[in-house]
Structures are given as C-alpha cells and as structure tokens.
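In these records, each integer encodes one residue's backbone shape. Here is one protein:

___
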Amino acid sequence: MQCVILAAGEGKRMRPLTAHRPKVMLPLANRPMLEHLIVATRQAGIREMLLVVGYGERAVREYFGDGSRWGVSIEYVVQRHQKGTAHALAQVQELVHDRFLLLNGDMLLHHEDLSALASLEPPCLTVATTDHPEDYGVVTTEGSRVTGLLEKSPAPPATTINAGAYLLGTDIFPLLADLRPSPRGELELTDALASYIPKGILRAHSLWYWRDVGYPWDLLDANAELLHELTSSCEGIVEDNVILHGPVAIGKGTVVKAGTYIEGPCTIGEECRIGPHAYLRAATSIGDRCHVGHGSEVKNSVIFPDTNLPHFNYVGDSVIGSGCNLGAGATIANLRHDRATVRVGGKDTHRIKFGAILGDNVQLGINCSVNAGSVLGAGVQAAPGTYLDGIYGDGSVVK
C-alpha cells in the first residue's frame, strides 16, 4: 500500500515560524513533525510514500532524501501553487496504483491507528472529537456512515471533526477533476468526498490518538506528548554537581555545566552549552547549538537551533525560532493576572499559560520584557529595557 502525505503548504497560521521553513519541518522533540508521521507510517507497515511538496520543498528533500534512512521509499511530487487539498492530491494521480492512505503532514498519529485504517475498505475518513469544533471541519454520522461534511462554522452541529487522514481508492481522482473553488478560493478534498455521501459509502473511523498542529501553541502540547515517550541518554558531557531528574536526552558534543538542574522529560540537541546554574523544566526541547547560560530558566518550551539564552533569562510556555539572542535579564511572561486564557492576535489559545512566539533571528536587548501572547516576527530587534506586547512584523525595530 502507498501513503500520500500532503506537505506542500507554508502554514500561514504558523507565521512567523514558517518564514524560513515549511510547516512540516517545524521541530517537535528535536525532530521535524513530518519525521514523526513518516516513522508512524512505517511502523504501520507502509513503506512506499509519496510526498506532495511545494513551499520550502528543498528543506524537505534535503532532510529526508530517498527515505532509506528511515527504511522507507520516498518519491516527491511538486505542487507549484497551493490551490487546496484536492489540487494537491491530484498531483499524484499518475503515481497511485491502488487504494492508498492520504495524510495531512501537519499532525501526529500513532501507528496502531494507521494500521487499523489501512485494514478497512475505502472510501473512509478519520474523525476525532474536540471542545472547539468551530476551528475544524465537522463530520456528522449515523453509526459509521458519514451523513454530512461541514467546513468551519461558528455554530457547528457536532464536536466530531475531520482528522485529516483518509483511506481512498483511485476512483477519487475523477471526482477531483470536476471540482470548483470553494468560498475560500481553494479546491477542497471534502467537496469531492461529499459525492460519496448520497451513495452511503463514505465511512468514518475514530482515531485513538490524534494531535493537530495548526497553531504555534499547538507545538507545545505536541512536543510534551512526544517527550512522554523519551528515554534517558547522554552522548555529551555532564559535569559534577548537575542534577538530572527524570528522562533527559543529551546530544553529542553538548556540555552541561555544574550547578544545572534539569527536570525530565527534556531533550537537548547536539553541541549545546547548558549552564552553569541553568534550570530546564519539564516538556522542554532545546535544539542543536543552543546556549542556555547562568541563571536562565526554560519551562515547557520549544527552542529551535542556534538560539542563545545566556544570562538570567526566563522563557516559559513559548516557541523560540532559530538564531535568536536574549540579552541579559530578558524575560517572557506566560500568565495573565486575571488567569484568563491567553489570546494571540485575538485568537484564543485555550491555554491559561502561554508565553510568546519568536521568529528566527530575534534580538532582545538586556532587560527586555515580552508579555504573554506576543508575537515577534523574524528579525525583530528590541532596544534594552523595552516592553513588548502584541504582534510585531518581520524586521521591526522596537525602541
């Protein structure tokens, strides 16, 4: 069986983190999210994969190559213009031979669910439940039979949503050819699937585990869940008087200096410098070549490679891009005084604690303060002592 993975989109909701990389290459537990999906697919026994790439395709090709490193075979198909999921699927028509799995590349699944899905008869879509269905396409059912597909609605009729994993046959391709753009201006796969509903043949399959990664704050939950599977390992150097509590993975060439306390689960990449006297708290991923120095504390955060938090910094519940530098004493708040959920640009994160999103190459002067829910675009520069609150576009200079 083949597996088609849609990995062509930029991920505009992930800006500024996707300014220099495609969404599927955002790191979770120090590996691209797409890698976790490919591994789960291989564990389900499927080794022939078609990746539909587009935005930032070079990063995907260079990282995954022909797939042999993961024990799979990868062939790439390019979607030059992102015109919707149906348009993306249509690009592989000449390469699909029989029934196949179709997966959105921006989610996490377990291999048990993929194995179960592959054993069914097409056409079949997967469903999950959520407490905020207005953010997704809703699926109505009678038993396992799908009776309706409704795109994002402010008043959804159900909490069962389309999870973005499908088992389809080659009969889907003629349906794609007849589609017209949706109100969003895209060719929607769900419009093609709706053709099956009057025939009563489209089935829904409930997933045991599903994690959507649609917004930057979703990276935190996905990262934390993946780290629950972490086992301790050390390929670096841990000096005396360092405390490692719980599972901690330390990459090759990394040095953890004296006085540092690390609470697992926590993963640290290669060639990092941690400490002295740093505090890394649970559910934190530190990318390659990072520096977390004296008196700095990081909690439940995803730190991309080549970023420095060198002196007396606090970062909580945040996502920090590559090449960032926080001046001494620069801190990120992660809690509102009224204990309400944090909003980012008017969008509710559904999180009581959420810090900030920093794009690549953000430079914060000493003693900067970043308020909860702030977004700092790629290349933002802030003068010493600056208070930052809200959304700052790429390249902004804040004084």
